[in-house]
TrEMBL record:
It comes from Arenibacter certesii. Belongs to the nitroreductase family. Its cofactor is FMN. This is NAD(P)H-dependent oxidoreductase. The keyword Oxidoreductase applies. SUPFAM superfamilies: FMN-dependent nitroreductase-like. Residues 189-210 are annotated as: Disordered.
Length: 210
């Protein structure tokens, strides 16, 4: 745990990446494995992950991300895109995987299916999108922590125009909406923000024991 905490202290929102350094395929695959293992409500994972390495695509994304250099200077950009809406198929598709993975007859999962559908499918459309976005942010937290543990620098980015990103990546026709972008790579020695002391609330202000 001490190494993990040291790595969390090491990470920061990287402002300037070293354009000559790439995240290795092995580390990238480990990072993606960690993202795929993220917790989500009911295990449903109502989002998709896009890994953008293509320079031409990232040049298109840069104006949509308010011209931020991390989009083109980093090794990769990861886009977490949540489902804009969903119906019963979200639950059905998941339980088909449960049935196949755990060797449980699908009919034996009917009660659990009805319970999930009663809690989720009946939500108003605006709440569905909000719920799926929150699930994507759970994956974001895991991404950032795993990246730090792998000594991959990262910068989570909410500063972008989602409709433009959706259009560039063809997300809308897939029923998806860009929730957050994450630039990953290796920090530049010229990034002076890496030397800033981390500022967090003292634990006595942040945490209440009851």
């Amino acid at each position: 745990m001490s190494n993990y905490l040291d790595n969390l202290n090491w990470r920061y929102a990287t402002k300037k990446f070293d354009t000559t350094k790439k995240v290795s395929p092995e580390k990238l695959e480990s990072l993606l494995d960690a993202i795929s293992l993220s917790a989500s409500s009911y295990g449903l994972q109502p989002y998709e992950i896009f890994v953008i390495e293509d320079k031409a695509v990232r040049e298109k994304l840069k104006p949509a991300a308010w011209g931020q250099a991390q989009i083109t200077d980093s090794s990769h950009v990861i886009v977490l895109a949540h489902q804009s809406t969903f119906g019963e198929e979200l639950v059905d598709n998941y339980l088909e995987k449960v049935s196949a993975t755990r060797n449980i007859p699908l009919k034996d999962l009917g009660g659990y299916a009805d319970f999930m559908k009663s809690k989720l499918v009946t939500l108003p459309e605006s709440e569905k999108a909000s719920w799926t976005a929150r699930q994507a942010y759970l994956a974001l937290g895991n991404l950032l922590s795993a990246a730090a543990d792998l000594k991959i620098d990262s910068c989570p980015m909410e500063g972008f125009d989602a409709p433009d990103v959706n259009e560039i990546l063809g997300l809308t026709e897939k029923g998806l909406n860009a929730a957050v972008l994450v630039a990953i790579g290796h920090r530049s020695e010229e990034d002076t923000t890496q030397h800033n002391k981390k500022v967090r609330k003292p634990k006595k202000e942040l945490i209440t024991h009851i």
